[in-house]
Design a protein that fits this description.
The chain is an alpha/beta fold. Helix content is 39%, strand content 13%. It contains eleven helices and nine strands. It has helices spanning 3-12, 30-42, 48-51, 57-62, 97-107, 128-141, 161-176, 194-197, 203-216, 234-246, 273-286; strands at 67-70, 74-75, 85-86, 112-117, 146-150, 182-184, 222-228, 251-256, 290-293. It has a seven-stranded parallel sheet with strand order 1-4-5-6-7-8-9. It has a two-stranded parallel sheet with strand order 2-3. Helix 5 packs across helix 6 (128-141), helix 7 crosses helix 9 and helix 10 runs parallel beside helix 11 (273-286). It is globular, with a radius of gyration of 18 Å. The termini are far apart.
Length: 306
Amino acid sequence: MSSTSRQSTYRETMPSQRLPNWLARSIGNASDIENVQNLVKGLSLHTICEEGRCPNRGECYSSGTASFLLGGKICTRSCAFCQVEKGAPPSKPDPLEALHLAEAVERLKLRYVVLTSVARDDLADQGASLFTKAISAIRDKNPLVEIELLVPDFWGGSSDIKIACGLQKERLELVLKSAPVCLNHNLETVERLQGIVRRGATYKRSLQLLRLSRELAPEIPTKSGIMLGLGETHQEVVDTLRSLRGVDCQRVTIGQYLRPSLSHMPVERYWTPEEFDEFGRIAMELGFTKVSSGPLVRSSYHADDC
């Protein structure tokens, strides 16, 4: 389906219901928000908070935190739920990105940092070195800063499955040697909806990355996140949680999908806070050590607690 056709279909299928009152967003303190935004912009950095239009960015900025986006602001993949700009990024990432990031972390006096990235399928290492350079620069200034990584699937570079699997393992191993406090990779949705929601990614590859992480660095906890409201059923959500536990994923976040624009997938259902509580209980019963489940939960929201 073409981009124009998708947009037309999405507009026609917009839910008629209003946004539920439990999805009211915290605005945050305007001066604190402006301070973080000016710092990030002044250092030519990007955050997933802004590029992904996170509903919690006001609250997070007011507390002096942000989740930094590596590799620029243009993603080589075109996921149907994500607000991040899609297209062809600059051929070379900003060589000063890691140094500027370390400066931002120091000036914001952060003790816990989340680093994520756009997908960079155009790069030989799929962007793995973006993470290692950023971690090194941050620790050069303050080795006590705890760093959580939210990584892409590091898949690409060969049509041969065995070679591609080997490359994924090499890239993941490189990142894990930097010793993050947590390795996060999101499944985003249930298996049936992967092809529609996550173009370029697959359920199997993502589970494989999480499994490999546990094998390569069992001392580093793994984490994943899913969105509800894309058309999944209750049983499919439970099955997804079981799949994650099947690869020994220890932490999980569960939140409500909110449509960023008319060109993105529509919301099929707004799950209630009580239903999120139920999924949280199920996740704990399945053996997750940390669970955050609620309508406004995002994978990096209060990351130091989950």
